[in-house]
Amino acid sequence: MPPQDPAPSLATSLNARSRSAWRLAQVSAWLIGVAIFALLFVLPEVGLAALWNTLIPVAPALIVFAPGVWRNVCPLGTTAVAARHAGLSARRSLSPLSRVWLNFAGVVALFVIVLWRRFELNTNAQSTAAVLAALGALSIAMGAVFEWKSGWCSGLCPVHGVEKLYGSKPLIAVDNAHCDACERCTNPCPDSTDAIHPMLGTSCFPQIASEWLLVGAFPGFVWGWFHVPDHVGGWEWSSALSDSTPVLLGASATLAAFIGIRRLVPKRHEGRLVRVFAAATVSCYYWYRIPALFGCGPFPTDGTLIDLSAVLPDGWIGLSRAVTTTIFVGWIVFYPASKRHWLHRPPYASGTISGSSDWESGFTESGDPSANRFSQASPLVQLDVAATDRATEWPSANGHGERTRTFHSEPRGAPSRASRGNGRSLHSVPKDSADR
Fold first, then answer.
1. pLDDT score for 351
2. Burial zone of 238 (CB within 10 Å; 0-12 exposed, 13-18 middle, 19+ buried)
3. Are 68 and 342 in contact (CB under 8 A)?
4. Is 175 among the domain residues?
5. Looking at the domain assignment, is residue 218 inside a domain?
6. How deeply is 75 buried, as exposed, middle or buried, from its count of CB atoms within 10 A (0-12, 13-18, 19+)?
7. Amino acid 352: pLDDT
């Protein structure tokens, strides 16, 4: 029997009023982005402050509690899917391996750009504008070639890794304001998969490297970043390594801790491990960032939006740190895990789930057998679409109603991953809401 939509009642379409409201929000956010870009040339100091000291400090908290809102209004995301809305995208499919490599490239770009901020971008408006222009061009190119969000928003975007790290327990889920219909362009879809995080994947090199960098190294990287001052007036490559010592030491320390702890943590608790490191990262960020915004950072002139150091009462720094740490650690680590996803999935596009042979041999996009997304040559293991889209839960085979989250099986005749000894079983694992 051809497979059916596993949760048809959960698919949502935007009504006219909601669509208009989201389009207004998207256009407004896009115009704000364009205005900031223009200010980098006209009023460089204002443009830098608007980007680095206003927009960016808000983003991590928004991604923690409402990643779907961020995904809906991100200016680069809107830019990327503009070609698809205009009917100008080639709508090509990305193979699973290509997508994971794009994710890895995005993670590397994230680390490079963030570190580069200390050496040039925080104080050089022209260089910042050049980076934004390059990212904009890449988003346009990826959107013009690949289907919907697969190339940029869920692929090469440097922020996507942070979305998966911080966004495993969203407070709210909203309608998808970009995708008119689900074309299954990415599997698992980060927008409609519950409790998605960076360690959901396979054991190929780019996936493991992304896990190590995002989950393991990023907390120490953020800590070290706040112990490096901004370089004003340029810098030299010869001094870059020594000046980056706190960043490298911090990243190495938390990476070593992650590798050691991960060996001790059962596979079913990987989600909790990710959340602990995610909470440490975002808490560390606001631990230093909020005081710096008001002139009380480790380097008083760096990252200051408005200097209130002379008027703020004693003890406010400790209070702000206690509040933000309690909020983020309490929510991400200890608050009972929600079953929410980032965005409600729109209805499937016509023909995307028709044909049992396509489903059994590996889902193919747009009904094209030549675009088999789970070919035997691919080393990737994907979460079962039927189990992950909208987090559909199925009774286990034991008949006791145990909730399971099923991983996509290998092509027929292929040995199980467990038998190959790589430590990632393809069998169903208990879905414990406290550990996802």
1. 67
2. exposed
3. yes
4. yes
5. yes
6. buried
7. 61
Query: Over the stretch 365-401, which tens digit does the pLDDT of each residue have?
Result: 333 333 333 333 333 433 333 333 333 333 333 333 3
Structure tokens given for 239: 């001094």
> Residues with Cβ < 8 Å from 251, sequence gap 6 or more?
217, 218, 220, 221, 224
Average pLDDT score, the chain: 81
User: Which residues are bridge partners to 389 per DSSP?
Assistant: 193
User: What amino acid occupies position 146?
Assistant: F
| d(C-alpha 203, C-alpha 406), whole Å | 17
Cβ-contact 274, 435 below 8 angstroms:
no
Residue 253 lies in a domain: yes
Residue 261 domain boundaries: 8-430
Distances in Å between the Cα of 315 and the Cα atoms of 182, 287, 378 are 51, 14, 56
Contact 425, 418 (CB under 8 A): yes
Name the residue with tokens 């996009």: 365
Rounded Cα distance between 369 and 70, Å, is 34
Nearest by Cα to 420 from 374, 381, 365: 381
Q: How many CB atoms lie within 10 A of CB 377?
A: 9
Q: 92: buried, middle or exposed (CB in 10 Å: 19+, 13-18, 0-12)?
A: middle
**Tokens matching residue 97:** 């391996």
Q: CA-CA distance, 183 to 147, in Å (whole number)?
A: 8
Instruction: Reply yes or no on whether the pLDDT at 233 is more than 90.
Output: no
- Which of 196, 180, 187, 152 is closest to 365 using CA atoms? 187
Name the nearest CA neighbour of 293 among 281, 280, 314, 309: 309
Nearest 5 degrees, angle CA 80-CA 82-CA 88?
105
Of 403 and 87, the one with more pLDDT: 87
Would you say residue 423 has pLDDT above 60?
A: no
Q: Is the pLDDT of residue 60 over 70?
A: yes
- For the full predicted model, state whether its pTM sits above 0.85: no
Number of structural domains, the chain?
1
Whether 44 maps to a domain, the answer reads yes
For residue 188, say if its preceding peptide bond is cis, omega within 30 degrees of 0: yes
What are the two backbone dihedrals, phi and then psi, of residue 344, each rounded to the nearest 5 degrees? -70, 130
Q: Which residue has the tokens 């003890």?
A: 315
Range in 149-163, 211-225, 354-368 with the lowest mean pLDDT = 354-368
**Token representation of residue 81:** 């899917």
Query: First and final CA of the chain: distance in angstroms?
Result: 32
